[in-house]
């Protein structure tokens, strides 16, 4: 298998943390997003949404989208389980992973990609060009603050997002919080439970080596 990657940016980072937790690694091809290599015709055939990461299987099949790749690898390598250890946890992990991605990750993406520092006409990832909507910057800020307060409340008196057990929901939340910090919106000091969680999970070897 071969991984198409651009280390350091949020979605590839989510996968690389997952791989480190699983003890997996693959030969890698660097796709430079800043140069627009993800939009090249040969890469579009591997990643229909023109994004990384993408995993090319030995038979030539390509799987893109971070969660899809993680799901595929979880099925191949179930230990340690990162999507839940029983049916109840599987449902809860999927729920919190989606909540963190929708309410946090996509909120900071709106803030970042619609702001003045991003490329014109590329307000959304994908094969099509879309103009920025400046109003989404302020909505993104509001959504991030709500994500922080909701996550802080959820993490009160528990170590991880689901059942005291580190999962992909924690990976998505951790990368989201770091993305927000990079975008200039760290969590407020009042979110003590969230900040304690972030400090603790940031010390995991998988995260330290992908920071």
Description:
Strand 1 (2-5), helix 1 and strand 2 (28-30) form a beta-alpha-beta unit. The mean pLDDT is 96. The chain has helices at residues 10-22, 41-44, 66-76, 87-113, 135-154, 168-182, 192-201, 205-208; strands at 2-5, 28-30, 54-56, 62-64. The chain is globular and about 50 Å long. It folds into two domains: 2-76, Glutaredoxin; 87-206, Glutathione S-transferase Yfyf (Class Pi), Chain A, domain 2. The chain is of the alpha+beta class and 211 residues long. It has a four-stranded mixed β-sheet, with helices on one face.
State the gist of this model.
Helices cover 49% and strands 6% of the residues. It is α+β, with helices and mostly antiparallel strands.
Secondary structure elements and pairings:
Layout: E1 2-5, H1 10-22, E2 28-30, H2 41-44, E3 54-56, E4 62-64, H3 66-76, H4 87-113, H5 135-154, H6 168-182, H7 192-201, H8 205-208
Parallel strand pairs: 1-2
Antiparallel strand pairs: 1-3, 3-4
Oligomer: single chain
How many strands?
4
Average pLDDT rating: 96
CATH architecture tag of the largest domain: Up-down Bundle
Radius of gyration: 17 Å
Distance between the termini: 24 Å
CATH class of the largest domain: Mainly Alpha
- CATH fold-type name of the largest domain: Glutathione S-transferase Yfyf (Class Pi), Chain A, domain 2
Describe this protein with a few key phrases.
single chain; 211 residues; alpha+beta; Glutaredoxin; Glutathione S-transferase Yfyf (Class Pi), Chain A, domain 2; four-stranded mixed β-sheet; 8 helices; globular
């Amino acid at each position: 298998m071969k991984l198409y990657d651009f280390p350091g940016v949020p979605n590839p980072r989510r996968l690389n943390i997952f791989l480190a937790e699983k003890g997996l690694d693959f030969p890698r091809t660097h796709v430079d997003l800043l140069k627009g290599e993800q939009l090249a015709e040969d890469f579009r055939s591997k990643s229909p949404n023109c994004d990384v990461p993408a995993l090319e299987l030995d038979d030539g099949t390509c799987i893109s989208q971070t969660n899809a790749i993680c799901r595929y690898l979880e099925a191949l390598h179930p230990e340690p389980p990162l999507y839940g250890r029983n049916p109840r946890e599987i449902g809860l992990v999927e729920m919190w992973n989606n909540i963190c991605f929708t309410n946090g990750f996509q909120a900071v993406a709106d803030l970042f990609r619609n702001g003045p520092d991003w490329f014109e006409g590329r307000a959304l990832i994908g094969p099509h060009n879309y103009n920025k909507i400046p109003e989404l910057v302020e909505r993104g800020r509001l959504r991030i603050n709500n994500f922080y307060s909701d996550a802080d409340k959820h993490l009160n008196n528990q170590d991880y997002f689901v059942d005291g057990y580190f999962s992909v929901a924690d990976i998505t939340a951790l990368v989201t919080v770091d993305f927000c910090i990079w975008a200039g919106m760290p969590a407020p000091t009042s979110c003590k439970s969230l900040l304690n969680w972030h400090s603790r999970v940031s010390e995991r070897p998988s995260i330290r080596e992908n920071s």
